[in-house]
Design goal:
The chain is mainly α and 306 residues long. The chain has two domains: 28-154, no CATH class; 193-306, no CATH class. 80% of the residues lie in helices and 0% in strands. The radius of gyration is 21 Å and the shape is globular. The mean pLDDT is 79.
């Protein structure tokens, strides 16, 4: 997929997501889901944000549209948003594992796919426990006006659908204005070899950390295309490379992919256009920065000491 195709895919998917999210908001479906999921507040979520994990499974765009509206109205604080988004990672990971990840990797590399899935899941469980502990303490004495959700039911009408489509298109255009220059900047860096230069510069570092040439090849390939890199796992198994080394290599490859591509191609489109710059940067640090640090750390530990 070339950059133009990637841009069209991102813009199309995000624009559809904006329209769908706006429809969910304008028809009252978001508030209805909020009522149905209110019990999730016991896990440390703000009562007005208990719908976020559920909306994330429908479309992350809807979750962010709903949360950003509450943020603009001053009904939640940025910390409430961060906790809700972090808590959403666990159900998203579970869905991703059984719908996309395991069906692809399990037939390819067998039990190693299960080990790696558990390695990825462990991080999200730890984050969920952290959110639960912090959230329970944060909202223990908080007075939240839950009554404002009372009586909300989905109200699908021609007028609400028109408002939703109009609002979704407006937000999609705002997204285009902010995202396009950032996308062009990243393409410029890639086209001028900056990303490849960074990868080449990191190769000696990986070698000094205990990765062999095949493992480094996997990491650099995964930084560009994880599906292509998966084929190298079979080769590592045939060469008798230890499972801990394979898992560590996969973790670092995932970190490199997140570092060089994932954050701007997948995460940034969810945030830009909805949040102020400061909140966008904080969300990127939480959703991209923390997993990158975790994957690098786990990968290096597994390869260097196991």
């Amino acid at each position: 997929m070339n950059f133009l195709e990637l841009y069209v895919v991102i813009v199309t998917a995000v624009s559809f997501g904006y329209i769908l999210a706006a429809l969910l908001v304008e028809t009252g479906t978001v508030n209805w889901i909020g009522l149905k999921t209110l019990s999730l507040s016991k896990f440390g979520l703000h009562p007005l944000l208990t719908n976020v994990p559920v909306l994330y499974l429908i479309t992350p765009r809807a979750a962010h549209v709903a949360a950003s509206e509450l943020l603009k109205k001053g009904e939640i604080e940025p910390k409430d948003l961060y906790l809700a988004i972090l808590a959403s990672n666990l159900p998203m990971r579970l869905m991703f594992l059984y719908r996309y990840y395991l069906p692809v990797l399990l037939p390819l590399i067998g039990i190693i796919a299960v080990y790696y899935a558990l390695l990825r899941l462990f991080f999200d469980i730890i984050i969920f426990i952290f959110v639960s502990v912090v959230g329970k303490r944060r909202y223990r004495s908080a007075q939240v006006e839950i009554s404002k959700l009372d009586g909300f039911k989905p109200e699908i009408s021609v007028e609400s659908l028109k408002r939703g489509i109009k609002k979704g298109i407006k937000e999609a255009l705002l997204f285009l204005l902010k995202f396009t220059p950032l996308f062009l900047l990243v393409v410029f860096l890639i086209k001028n070899g900056i990303m490849n230069w960074l990868t080449v510069k990191l190769n000696p570092v990986f070698g000094s950390l205990g990765f062999n040439s095949l493992e480094i090849t996997y990491i650099t390939t995964a930084a560009i295309s994880p599906p292509v890199a998966y084929g190298l796992i079979k080769l590592m198994i045939k060469e008798g490379i230890r499972i801990t080394h394979i898992l560590g290599t996969m973790a670092v490859g995932n970190a490199m992919f997140s570092l060089l591509r994932s954050w701007w191609a997948y995460l940034l489109p969810y945030y830009v256009g909805l949040y102020p710059l400061r909140i966008t940067l904080n969300l990127l640090l939480l959703q991209a920065g923390l997993p990158i640090i975790y994957n690098f750390t786990v990968g290096i530990i597994l390869v260097k000491w196991f």
